[in-house]
Amino acid sequence: MATQEQHQWLADALGVTSVLSLVGDEKSAATDDAASPVSSETQSATDTAQAGEAAAADAGNSSAPVISVSTKGDGSFVITGSGFVTNTTVHIRVVDDALTTLWFDTGSDGQGKINFPVSGICKLPGNLHFSANDGRPDPSDLTGTLWSNTVTASCPNQPADPGDDPDDPDPPDNPTPPSDPAPAPDNPTTPDDPAQSSDDG
């Protein structure tokens, strides 16, 4: 039969109040339960509360983040979002209709929000599809990653020239060709022509 010290050592090692009832020493178990400051109803309520808090944390942690994308119409965009893990790296994926993919990283703030401006990604007119993740797993997704919603935005018909100074006037699209010069006279003369002055004299 195990001693009281052995029971206590095992209880401490396992992190439980008493293991005496598990090994059959009901008298010692009753003594330990009487000495315990936490009643079984209180312990049950505490366990339920802790389980509820853990479930709420897990539910909040498994909720997909949400993003939105605004465009300035010049090929630049601002991606904002919330519901990311706080103070962590957020991976932003941009895919065009030809499935060309660009990746950008930004950091979430202390509230799990992002605000990321990006420009120079419109090479041709068409759609861009934005989504983001913070690395959390999602076994139900084919990629195994928990993704935000996907937002589609359009590139302008003509991409902006990043080297174009807005203060400089642009050349006209179809410059007007110079007009034909006036027809030349049949016998052109110039006042300084020496041949002309010798004929007069």
Low-confidence stretches: 13-40, 48-60
Structural class: alpha+beta
Principal-axis shape: rod-shaped
Question: What's the mean pLDDT score?
Answer: 72
**Total helical elements:** 5
Order of helices and strands: HHHHEEEEEEEH
Q: Name the beta content range.
A: 15-25%
Query: How many β strands by DSSP?
Result: 7
Largest sheet, spatial ordering of strands: 4-3-6-7
Overall helicity: 25-40%
Give the N-to-C terminal Cα separation. Answer: 152 Å
Radius of gyration: 40 Å
Largest sheet: 4 strands, antiparallel
Which helices and strands occur, and which strands form pairs?
Layout: H1 4-14, H2 20-23, H3 26-35, H4 40-62, E1 66-71, E2 77-82, E3 89-96, E4 101-107, E5 114-118, E6 126-133, E7 151-155, H5 194-200
Antiparallel strand pairs: 1-2, 2-5, 3-4, 3-6, 6-7
Q: What does this protein look like?
A:
The protein has 201 residues and is an alpha+beta fold. The chain has helices spanning 4-14, 20-23, 26-35, 40-62, 194-200; strands at 66-71, 77-82, 89-96, 101-107, 114-118, 126-133, 151-155. A four-stranded antiparallel β-sheet has the order 4-3-6-7, with no helix packed on it. Strand 1 (66-71) and strand 2 form a beta hairpin. The protein is rod-shaped and about 135 Å long. 12% of the residues are buried. Residues 13-40 and 48-60 have low confidence and may be disordered.
List keywords for this structure.
three-stranded antiparallel β-sheet, four-stranded antiparallel β-sheet, 201 residues, single chain, 22% strand, 5 helices, alpha+beta
